[in-house]
């Protein structure tokens, strides 16, 4: 059975999610307010473009809200939602206590995908568990449903870590190419090595990550020597400080 999904705020994130979501048995509606993006989505994925947001809400079983977080409450308060609808918020940092009253009586679900959704590689947080939203989001990658909303904000900081790791890949691939390695090979090698490390952690879930490290950082190994330099420079503490700063941000 086809599900009708309305999208309020078809911007950067939605553009990266649509290649995956379009593969689901869904009908997608967007507003013509963002004309360039909506026209692009209509041309590439057959998305239907409507004149305004309220007709989108009126026809949708799921309403995806992907506007800027500081605009979300005002945008939703101007709309009328129905009992039985589900609103899927992709608004980072916006708690349900602020958005839920604006979308009542619809049910609110929060999620945090990243742009790797276009490759169906986004690890997407969701709260609370919701089967219909899970089906949609699983097209974008694995869905991780949290048991409490209190854990959503700290877990969502890892969506920013995703960007930080890309910067780390950039820095290390630049170093490799500076040693005379072809830049394309340096970039792919660094990216694939990062993926290999992540795959090992994912595929050995019962092994503590500290043990995985110790299996590589054996006495007199180059891995251990490099880690000693990093720990001496306290290189990992700033990553935690960055996460703390985001968690404390208003």
Q: What descriptive keywords fit this protein?
A:
single chain, 250 residues, alpha/beta, Rossmann fold, ProC C-terminal domain-like fold, 2 domains, 8-stranded mixed β-sheet, 12 helices, elongated
Describe the structure.
It is a single chain. The chain is 52% helix and 14% strand. The protein has 250 residues and is of the alpha/beta class. It folds into two domains: 3-147, Rossmann fold (3-Layer(aba) Sandwich), CATH 3.40.50.720; 158-248, ProC C-terminal domain-like fold (Orthogonal Bundle), CATH 1.10.3730. It has an eight-stranded mixed sheet, sandwiched between helices. Strand 1 (3-8), helix 1 (12-21) and strand 2 form a beta-alpha-beta unit. Helix 4 (69-77) runs parallel beside helix 5 (96-103) and helix 8 (158-178) crosses helix 9. The longest helix is centred in the C-terminal third of the chain and has 21 residues, at 158-178. It is elongated, with a radius of gyration of 21 Å. The model has no long low-confidence stretch (mean pLDDT 95).
